[in-house]
Amino acid sequence: MSRWFAPDSPLMRAMRIFADIIHLNLMIIITSLPLITVGASLSAAYATARGELNDLGGGLTVRYLREFRRNLARCSMLWLLLAVAGVALLALWRAVPVLPVHMLLSLCAALWTTVFLWTWPLQARFDNGVAGTLRTALLVGMAHLPRTVLMLGEVVVYVALLIMACRLLPQALFLLLVTGVGLLVFLHIGPTEHAFAPLVARTAPVSTQ
């Protein structure tokens, strides 16, 4: 029994990760309140989650705020570009109710989703500039399509659970809300790190702390 509660036991490590997920989700919520900073919050979250899972040390809050400040300008531009593109796609969908146009917009939406999913972990890991990050996000997302589908599936499952909790199981709603985006970021670290391995071999990462 005592081994279960040893500092390096699987149980205690799982509890630390769970606490980190809640802590990270809180940091994301607070730093995303101005809305324009959502991109910087997501990028900082990926860098922080990677550091926590790899036991790089330094403290979650300190690492998160350092990464948030470092990426604030560039990630705000990335977020603005992606938000405008997303709103434009939605507006066109509603304004032009024609099947061929909807088919084309569906393809554009799939590409937008791919870019959105990979932009933030890429920006947290590499310094490619705005255009370079968007281009690489699309290329990596298409080259690793199964991982892209997995990441998107995790988001869809989380949203579905959130809706079900609201309607059928309100008791679970609090747990889903306090883990939130932090949980999704932690879940995405595995797929993104595997996809980035060839890039890391060729390009020095921005930060290893």
Taken from the alpha-carbon principal axes, the silhouette is: globular
H/E element order: HHHHHHH
Task: Report the portion of residues in β strands.
Answer: under 5%
Tell me the distance between the termini.
35 Å
Question: How would you sum up this structure in a few lines?
Answer:
Helices cover 81% and strands 0% of the residues.
Attribute tags:
209 residues; mainly alpha; globular
Question: Explain this structure to me?
Answer:
The structure is a single chain. By secondary structure, the chain is mainly α. It is 81% helix and 0% strand. It contains seven helices and no strands. The longest helix has 36 residues, at 60-95. The mean pLDDT is 91.
Describe how the helices and strands are arranged.
Layout: H1 10-31, H2 38-53, H3 60-95, H4 99-125, H5 129-143, H6 145-167, H7 173-202
